[in-house]
Specification:
The protein is an alpha+beta fold. It is 34% helix and 26% strand. The chain has seven helices and 15 strands. The strands form three sheets. Strands 4-3-5-6-7-8-9-10 form an eight-stranded mixed beta sheet, sandwiched between helices. Strands 12-11-13-15-14 form a five-stranded mixed beta sheet, sandwiched between helices. A two-stranded antiparallel ribbon has the order 1-2. A hairpin with a 5-residue loop joins strand 9 and strand 10 (146-148).
Length: 271
């Protein structure tokens, strides 16, 4: 039976993601421009990132004023309830800036430091993914009702379709390209979608066999990591570690460990 608190957190996360997704989809100005940059001149923030985070954090503060909040665009509140929200209001900002459809709103809720709820909505796909710890992972879309997610049976590594992402700092990107160059001959192929949250959900949905990336933040992966794990995927960082900014690896059982070993051998976590 679902914990009543977790049910309430899920419903709030779904409402916030739905509202923010609609704002981003329907409110995107034709002349959308970069509002700021972060780690480099090509790591951008738009006015819509900021507006979506303000919508989400405002709703959470109204409904649950004692909760903590960590948002990509600067929201940071300690809270006193033991619950913290980890928010990426627009994961895939460059895709959004260019009018590409692969972007998402990602909202996770932690209880005492453990992620217990994750919601990722991809408005241009018409899909919303969600999971509650111990309750499986689910998706809604153009079809009726919810569908339970399950990652696909693991193929041999040389038949695995793996997604990745690239950092916006030039030196890091160059190293990531070297790792990908070594990895590509050992896999079926590599994809680069542009949204970590969507990649993790696609793994959960059986559309990928694996995923890895260096340089992610908590807001990039918190919701997607839970959804992937609840769909049967394995996730981690370097061997024996949890996903982190050094390295995030996810995959179906049978793909995860050999992929993680290769990434360790190739030094995927550092320059």
């Amino acid at each position: 039976m679902t914990d009543p608190l977790h049910k309430d957190l899920l419903e709030l996360a779904q409402e916030a993601a739905r509202r923010a997704g609609a704002l981003l989809r329907d409110g995107r100005p034709a002349d959308l421009a970069v509002a700021a940059t972060k780690s480099s001149p090509i790591d951008v923030v738009t006015e819509m990132d900021i507006a979506a985070e303000k919508l989400i954090t405002g709703l959470i503060a109204e409904r649950r004023p004692d909760d903590g909040i960590l948002g990509e665009e600067g929201a940071a509140t300690e809270g006193t309830s033991g619950v913290r929200w980890v928010i990426d209001p627009l994961d895939g900002t460059v895709n959004y800036l260019y009018g590409l459809p692969t972007w998402a709103v990602s909202i996770a809720a932690e209880q005492d430091g453990e992620t217990v709820v994750g919601v990722v909505t991809a408005p241009m796909r018409g899909e919303t993914f969600h999971a509650v710890l111990g309750g499986g992972a689910w998706v809604t879309g153009a079809w009726d009702g919810e569908r339970r997610l399950a990652c696909r049976p693991a193929p041999p590594l040389d038949q695995a379709l793996v997604s990745t992402g690239f950092n916006y700092v030039a030196e890091v990107r160059a190293h990531q390209a070297e790792v990908a160059q070594r990895l590509i001959p050992l896999l079926r192929d590599i994809r680069r979608g542009g949204s970590a949250a969507v990649d993790l959900c696609d793994l959960a949905a059986g559309r990928l066999d694996g995923y890895y990336e260096r340089g992610l933040h908590a807001w990039d992966l918190a919701a997607g990591d839970l959804i992937a794990r609840e769909a049967g995927a394995l996730t981690g960082g370097r061997p024996g570690e949890r996903p982190s900014g050094d390295l995030t690896v996810a995959g179906t059982p049978g793909v995860f460990e050999p992929l993680q070993r290769l990434l360790e051998d190739f030094g995927a976590w550092h320059d």
